[in-house]
Amino acid sequence: MKDSQANPQPIQVKLLGPEAKAPHAIVDVAFLCDCTGSMGIFIDKAKDTVRKIVADIRAEYSDASIFFAFVAYRDHEDGNALLQLTDLTGDVESVLKFIDKLSAFGGGDEAEAVADALDAASKLSWRSDSVRQAVLILDAPPHGKEFAAASDSFPAGCPCGKDYKELLKRMHERDIKLLVLNFTPSVANMISIFVQHHPGVESVNIPNQQQPQPAALSPRFAGWGPTIFGSHAGGFAPGAPVFGGGSSSAGSGSIFGAAAPMGSTVGTTQQVQAAALMSQSISEAVCRNVGQKLGPATKR
């Protein structure tokens, strides 16, 4: 007869106390921000946008895990300053400190290194189970004659050989939605091209406050059209002005007229108006995408 004590069975131990729960919402947000000379006010406003996204998501999903990344890009003439980035992290304060150290400079022609920013975004440490959102903040399109920039030193496209079409396809395959801040005609044209390669491209349309506002719309939404943001499956008419008017001042590729001084965080009056709408508009769009993916939460 075998000794039952010679082969003891493992003891099952049940730990007492509440079981750890995975967060209900896992959200990764990457900002891709043009940091050339005209964009100082938008770099500064990005910090408020990060804070608002955190507050708005956690108002619905109190236990949300939210990671941020920030990709600052300029242009190929800017050497080592072409790209500066911090990868996805849950340490929000470290991302805000990174943004604090950025300054707006560089960028000779109108077109910028947008393809390099898309490439960097596709290589970030996106979590496997996250809602993935990239936010592109810019006032000028990528290099390439199809984008019809006012001036472009590389009309054949990115001199590094990065293909925006392949990069957008890669982002779509990885379920990374791309939200674009849209407030110049050249960016509107870019969006109409981008949606052909990535159905998840959306835009936040910043109104020109100097244009007449439709009387039927409330003051909050005046100038936005039928929706504040949304998918543009049909795109914009190539080259069409965003605001149905608005002319550029001489020497400026922007509807805002003369650009703010290099590195300025003050901006023109129109830039200030656009930046003031940026945090609310981007946060609403990001939260909407999170809600569509996860459904409503029971607040705990």
Write the layout of secondary structure elements.
Elements: E1 26-34, H1 40-60, E2 65-73, E3 83-89, H2 92-100, H3 114-122, E4 131-137, H4 164-173, E5 176-182, H5 185-194, E6 201-205, E7 229-231, H6 269-294
Parallel strand pairs: 1-2, 1-4, 4-5, 5-6
Antiparallel strand pairs: 2-3, 6-7
Helix pairs in contact: 1-2, 1-6, 3-4
Name the descriptors.
Rossmann fold, 7 strands, single chain, alpha/beta, about 300 residues, 7-stranded mixed sheet
Overview of this protein structure:
There is one protein chain. With 300 residues, the chain is of the alpha/beta class. It has one domain (26-294): 3-Layer(aba) Sandwich (Rossmann fold), CATH 3.40.50.410. Helix content is 28%, strand content 16%. It is built from 6 helices and 7 strands. It has helices spanning 40-60, 92-100, 114-122, 164-173, 185-194, 269-294; strands at residues 26-34, 65-73, 83-89, 131-137, 176-182, 201-205, 229-231. A 7-stranded mixed sheet has the order 3-2-1-4-5-6-7, sandwiched between helices. β4 (131-137), α4 and β5 (176-182) form a beta-alpha-beta unit. α1 runs antiparallel to α2 (92-100), α1 (40-60) runs parallel beside α6 (269-294) and α3 runs parallel beside α4 (164-173). The chain starts with 25 loop residues before the first strand and ends in a 6-residue tail after the last helix. Mean pLDDT is 77; it is low at 10-20 and 209-266.
